[in-house]
Amino acid sequence: MAHKAKIGILGASGYTGSECVRLLLRHPQVEIVLLTADRKAGQEMRDVFPQFAPFGLPKLVSIDSVDWAAAALDLVFCALPHATTQKVLAALLAAAPNTKVVDLSADFRLADTAAYARWYGQEHSAPELQKEAVYGLVEVHRDAIRTARLVANPGCYTTCAQLPLVPLLKAKAIDPDEIVVDAKSGVTGAGRAAKENMLFSEVSEGFHAYGVGHHRHMAELDQEFSLAAGREVIVSFTPHLVPMNRGMLSTIYVRGLGKSPQDLHAILAATYAHEPFVQVLPFGEMPQTRHVRGSNMTFLGVHADRQPGRAIIGSALDNLVKGAAGQAVQNMNLVLGFAETAGLEQVALFP
Question: pTM of the full predicted structure?
């Protein structure tokens, strides 16, 4: 039997960690050999997520108990909370420098460590590692990701907004100063830890904005949009919590620079014509979260606004898949030299 890559998942008891497990179980070229979850250490994965009962997965262990050199992992997915990840990965890569990492936290997404300190309220604890981190939006940074040791997996909100907007900014087709991103996410985006404001009775039958005017993903959006535009871009972005388990929809308002809404649609259609995980819908159609649920797809749509020169862009993805674990597996495939679509070909689940 051909050699399979040895994979570890740190934070496997959370939603994104368990989603990595789900996807990797059907990946033909990897073997899951390590699962960590400090609060659930000592338990079987099936005890934490019963859907994994049929599979022979390793028992959950604490991170402190892992001998990184002896583990000899080919790649690690890190699905830990921000602020803890930097120290864990610094120790891991010091002990096992040949191990590749795809980090699903926010700890290595911002190239400027001063910006990290400003937005996250504490100093970056691994600035040397930050210098080598590659931002993991595959459709934009594919070539750099292939040779990376440390990939910073993008956030779900940022992926949902960047896929439609980065090509338009690069083409100088829209006004960088007139971008409004109105975004909505399912509750799994808040993680699995018990929180009073995430109780069923707190979120059901309602819909609300949060992080208004100062959400941490703004820094990530500004960084990548400025890179694409070749000048500073400060985006208007507001996230909302929707009472559904998974899914993300961004409704984006832009003004064309000498470009009609049809022109913007044509740019996106040409950009993504051969991308396996981005589907540009016919002009005038808008995407729905139910049509990407459980898949690694992003659906994009462009519609004319009633104001001349303006367009409305829709972007929908599954926040746990293309917005997190699916994109992480896509990054792993590039880093380890596998087919980019391996383990990610499942079709969306509807109804």
Answer: 0.95
